[in-house]
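User: Fold this; tokens only.

Assistant: Input:
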Amino acid sequence: MFIVFYLLALSMDAMLRVSIESNISLSKILIVFGFIPAIRLYGGRTVVFVFSFLGVLLYSSLVAIVGEYGVTNNLIRFNFHALLAASCFYFGYILALRLGVKRAYYIYCWFFWIVFIASVLFYYFSYTPPNIVEKTSVIRGWFWNENDLAMLFVALSFLVYNLGARLGSAKKSLIILFLAIYVAAINEARVVLLASAIFLGLKLIKYFVDFLSEGGGKGVKNSLFIIFIALASLFSYAVLIYLKQDALLDPFFRFVTLDPYGIPYGSIYNRTDAAIYAIYGFFDSYGFGIGLGNSINLIVEQKYGVILSAGSMHNLVAQMIVELGMVFILGFIIFFKKSGFILFVLFWMPFLLNSVSQSSGIFSNYVFFFVFGSAFLFVRKKLAGNMYN
């Protein structure tokens, strides 16, 4: 249960700050102390991780100094936040390594249920925790932003489902995914809903292929349950699209053709343009990147166009491409190769799409990176086995 409490403390970063304006919080202090058991249990791995990531931060600083932005407050701030986020990723990885599938599955289930019940109670009783800006129309528990919670829940539900599939508890795990979709729908987290729909749709296709290849009969009951949830999530997303009058495919085609909207306001327009401007910045830096955090300067200074509804990329992958350049792309290629095409499409594509829902605040969503680290160990090609059966 200590690990569950540690996860809860990480998730309470906003609430456990000294003040609403402060960056100092108990969660950040606990991250530092997390290195004590990490060094005791995995001393060699921990040393390699620390020096490897310090190398990344050094590279980030060097390309910023040599490039057009130089050493900025955003560079210093994001180097710090990236170190904390990467540390949580590493802790999640070694936790998975230490505990194994079954224990990790139950720990993450317990964590989900505690946060979910508390968040729903806060919502229905209109309670706002300390150091959190009051907004009772959404479910966000003790998180700073409602997208923080929705993104975490869906990422966590993806991992729990896959761990549950290996333990024969996939159907029970779908309940968690359904509840995560419920929170995303209340919060109007459209990208999170889309990621959920893609995950479930791909899962349904996998069941259908198994059904045909094995002569029928296998997984029919589970498939009916998945159809229900997939239709529910697609319906939720379709309603939100209709209400907001935003297109679904147009942003994708604009990104592929690098054709920005050029419209100052509007969430979809600004997020699409920000991703396109990230590609512009990548090429303008000759592929080296502009340094961690400097993508915010790129947007604020309106180098490629005016974006007024978003102060950051709202896209973790695009942000890393423009900030770390070929270093990130090389790491991403290695990651893709180790995952394998099928596993990447079935799990990691919706998992990473889910992260697009958040702005640069994702770097302080420490528990998300903890979950990411565990998924990085568990959801791999050589371990996949029956994960999708």
